Predict the 3D structure of the following.
Amino acid sequence: MAEPHHHTDPTFSSATGYDGGCEGETAGGSDRRTFLKEGLMAVAALTAVAGASVPLEAMTRTYAIGAAGAGLATLSYPIPTADGATIDRANKVILIRYQGMVYALARECPHKGTMVDWQPEQNRLYCPKHKSTFTANGTKIQGKSPRSMDRYAIRLEEGKLIVDTAKVIEGDGTNWATTGVKVG
Ligand code: FES
């Protein structure tokens, strides 16, 4: 069955982190898409690395501006201006701003790797596969997930959030509770 941690290597994860195809993504290591939101700079170099055409998809709440190149594990995001979730579908990251902190959650459910969604009405994260629920910062509430959601290393650098998807901090594990950036 699916390993919960295949996202440690972006190239490998693209081959194994298949999401049932329901999102129409082919986030392969070399053709990983770059989603650009208005107001963000399109970096020509990244587009070139990404190979063929890089479609601009009208996905609100998606802010990814990095990781277009094969093997790149570092993503850069603007600091969200309000509490809530920013889902980077291409890179399977959920950026959460919550109570003055920002966390970068691995979007894959720790149970079987299904893509977790944000439910703003309930202010919680929800796995549709077996109905695990998590608080806004990824803390497990209930369900089949064996632990809270995994987080990626995150830091603040020159006003941007830098997320390192090569560094996974397992849910509830050592340093998990402190893996976040204070922005409030
Ligand atoms: S895959 Fe998420 S609860 Fe089973």
The chain has one domain: 6-182.
